[in-house]
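This part of the workshop introduces the protein records we will be handling. An example says more than a description, so a record of this kind follows.
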Amino acid sequence: MDAQTRGLLRECSLGCKMAINSFDQMRDYVKNEELKELMDTYDKKHKTYEEKAAKMLMEDGSKEKEPGMMASAFSKMTTEMKGYCAYRGIFNEGYAEVSVISAGRYF
């Protein structure tokens, strides 16, 4: 496996891990069953992709890339804040991200 493929697999694995963590963090805030099902579907897909990337890296003798401590902490903080705001109905369109506002109808 060449270095570019190895690097791409590491980044894919990392991205999947961060997405899985975000899904786990948001589950407590989601009340809409349709959104929960959608999140579960994509959580499973991300886990499958991450497992495949990990297997390919392992077969190559390479290590996976883990989320950095600061990136994980910032991700958790922003996810928790967005979830709390959505849960409480605290939305200010000038402040919140468009994706959060449009997803707010599911909370």
Notes: Residues 3-106 form one domain. Confidence is low (pLDDT under 50) at residues 90-104.
